[in-house]
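SEQUENCE, STRUCTURE TOKENS:
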Amino acid sequence: MLTVLGDDIAALTSRDGLDWSCVSGAPIFEATEIDGSDRVHTLAAASDGERISVIIEALQYNAAGSVYTNLWLANLVP
């Protein structure tokens, strides 16, 4: 499962759906990978059988300090 963990995105795994652990010791995607982003807000993922497409919504601030969001698309090959 992909989830927002803190400000970033982590991959979790579970054998029973009750106990979850991180797939790696670090996030698979950090909010700072998006230029000017402060944190990941939401994400959605879908598979077409060959790859996983992930839409990431990141929160950013403009020069006046107003918050806005940006959507990013990543295609992952499992």
In short: The chain has one domain: 2-76. The first strand starts at residue 2 and ends at 5.
